[in-house]
Design a protein that fits this description.
The chain has 412 residues and is of the alpha+beta class. The chain has helices spanning 227-253, 263-292, 301-321, 335-369, 374-411, and strands at residues 7-15, 28-36, 65-70, 73-80, 94-101, 107-112, 121-126, 131-137, 145-147, 156-162, 167-174, 187-194, 207-213, 219-222. The strands form three sheets. A seven-stranded antiparallel β-sheet has the order 9-8-7-6-12-13-14, with no helix packed on it. Strands 3-4-5-11-10 form a five-stranded antiparallel β-sheet, with no helix packed on it. Strand 10 and strand 11 (167-174) form a beta hairpin.
Length: 412
C-alpha cells in the first residue's frame, strides 16, 4: 500500500475459536508484541491453517435425497415440482419415494400429525403379494391396519421387489390429497416400520417416528410420548400382582410360620388392600393415557383382560369386606360361609394367574411401543419369570406342605 505501517507481530494463540461471527468465534491471542518489521520470527513453529468446508446442501427437488432411517433401512425421496409453482408453494407437487431394506420383509412409511401410529396413513409394500398400497392405521393390531378404499389408491409408479439381498419399494404420491394427511415440502412427521418377513404383522422394535424437512433433508427422531406414564403403569402393576397379592396369599397359606393370633389376617388384608389401591391407579393411568393418545379403549387382549381383572378384583375386595363371619368356637361353619371360602379362594387363584399373564403381556406391549431391543425385552422377561416362579413355588409347595401337615395332625 502507498500508506500504512509494517510491523512484525509476535504472540501466542490461546484458543482457535469456533469460526463463527459471535464473541466466541475469533481466536484468542496472548503475549502480543508489536515489533519493527526487520525483526524476524526466529523460526517460530507454525501450523498450516485448517479450512472449514461447509457441506453443499442438496436440492431435494432436483435430485434424490437420502435419509438413513436405521442401520439397514434407507429412505430416498425427491419432490417433483410442476411448472408454474415453487417448492415452497408446491401446488400439484408429488413426491417419489424409495425404501430400501437389507433383507426380505414388508416395508412401510407413514404420514402422521402427532407421531402416533393410530390415526396415521401409511404406504405399505408386501413383496410376497407384489403390492404397494395406501393404508389407514386405525389400531395397533392387524385388524386396525386396513387398505384405503379403491378410490383413494392414487399411488403412481409403484413397485416392490426382493433381489436376493434387499427389498426395494418405490412409489410416487400426491402430496396434497383431499381427506388425507398433507405432506409438506418443509417439516413433516413420518413413521417407518418393517417386518422380519414378508407377512404383514407385529414389527416389535423395527419402527420409529422421525421429523423430516423434505426441502433441506434435516431430520431427527421423534420420541414416543407418555413413556414415564406407561412405565409407572407397568411398575405399579408388578408391585400389585407380582409382589403384594402373592404376599397376601402366602400370609394365609403359611400362617403356621407366624405367631399365633390375628397377625396372618392383618398381613393378608393389608397386602390385598395395598394391591387393590395400586391396581386402581394402574387402571386409571391406562384409561387416561389411552384417551389422551386417541386410541380405542379395551381393544386388544391386554386391555380386555385388564377390564375383566378390575371387575373381578372389585368383586373380590367387596366379598372380603362383607364376608360371612367365622362362627364362634365350637360352632360349625354355615353353608354360606363355606361357599364364600371356596369362591374367595377360586377367584383369588384366578386373579393371580391372570395377573401373571397380564404383566408379561404388558412387558411385550411396552417393548413394541418404545422400541425396546429384543435382547432387553428377553432379559427382563427372564428376570420376571424367575421372580414369578419363586412366588408360585412358595404358594404351591409351601401351601401344600402345611395343608398336608394339618391333615396329618387331624388324623392323629
Amino acid at each position: 500500500p502507498e500508506y500504512g505501517y509494517r510491523a512484525t507481530i509476535k504472540g501466542k494463540v490461546k484458543s482457535l475459536g469456533d469460526g463463527s461471527h459471535s464473541a466466541a468465534g475469533p481466536p484468542t491471542l496472548t503475549d502480543i508484541q508489536v515489533l519493527d518489521e526487520e525483526v524476524g520470527c526466529d523460526g517460530a513453529p507454525t501450523i498450516p491453517p485448517l479450512c472449514k468446508v461447509e457441506p453443499v446442501a442438496k436440492d431435494c427437488s432436483q435430485e434424490f435425497c437420502d435419509n438413513q432411517l436405521s442401520s439397514g433401512y434407507l429412505l430416498r425421496y425427491q419432490i417433483n415440482v410442476p411448472d408454474g409453482t415453487t417448492v415452497d408453494v408446491c401446488d400439484g407437487c408429488t413426491i417419489s419415494m424409495e425404501l430400501i431394506y437389507d433383507g426380505d420383509a414388508w416395508v412401510s412409511v407413514a404420514f402422521s400429525t402427532d407421531g402416533q401410529m393410530i390415526g396415521s396413513e401409511a404406504v405399505i409394500g408386501l413383496p410376497g403379494d407384489n403390492k404397494v398400497e395406501k393404508y389407514n392405521l386405525g389400531g395397533k393390531s392387524e385388524s386396525g391396519v386396513l387398505p384405503m378404499p379403491e378410490s383413494q389408491q392414487t399411488l403412481l409408479d409403484t413397485s416392490i421387489e426382493f433381489n436376493g439381498e434387499q427389498t426395494t419399494m418405490k412409489f410416487t404420491k400426491i402430496m396434497k390429497e383431499a381427506g388425507e394427511i398433507e405432506i409438506s415440502s418443509a417439516d413433516n412427521t413420518f413413521l417407518w416400520a418393517h417386518g422380519s418377513n414378508d407377512v404383514l404383522g407385529y414389527h416389535v422394535s423395527n419402527r420409529a417416528s422421525v421429523a423430516l424437512n423434505l426441502s433441506s433433508g434435516a431430520s431427527e427422531t421423534v420420541a414416543v410420548p407418555n413413556k414415564s406414564a406407561w412405565l409407572a403403569h407397568g411398575i405399579m402393576a408388578f408391585f400389585a400382582w407380582g409382589v403384594f397379592v402373592p404376599f397376601a396369599v402366602q400370609s394365609s397359606l403359611l400362617r403356621d410360620l407366624l405367631p399365633k393370633g390375628p397377625l396372618w389376617y392383618k398381613l393378608h388384608r393389608g397386602f390385598n388392600s395395598t394391591a387393590f389401591a395400586f391396581f386402581v391407579v394402574v387402571f386409571a393411568i391406562a384409561v387416561t393415557f389411552t384417551s389422551k393418545e386417541g386410541a380405542t379403549h379395551f381393544d386388544n387382549k391386554h386391555q380386555k383382560m385388564g377390564l375383566a381383572m378390575f371387575i373381578m378384583a372389585a368383586f373380590q375386595v367387596s366379598g372380603g369386606v362383607f364376608r360371612p363371619h367365622v362362627p364362634e368356637e365350637g360352632q360349625e361353619k354355615s353353608v354360606v360361609r363355606k361357599s364364600w371360602e371356596v369362591g374367595h379362594r377360586v377367584l383369588g387363584v384366578t386373579l393371580l394367574a391372570c395377573g401373571f399373564w397380564q404383566m408379561r403381556e404388558g412387558i411385550a406391549l411396552y417393548a413394541i411401543k418404545y422400541s425396546v431391543s429384543e435382547s432387553g425385552e428377553g432379559s427382563l422377561g427372564i428376570a420376571y419369570w424367575v421372580w414369578i416362579g419363586i412366588m408360585t413355588a412358595l404358594i404351591v409347595l409351601g401351601g401344600g406342605y402345611f395343608k398336608f401337615r394339618s391333615n396329618d395332625s387331624s388324623d392323629d
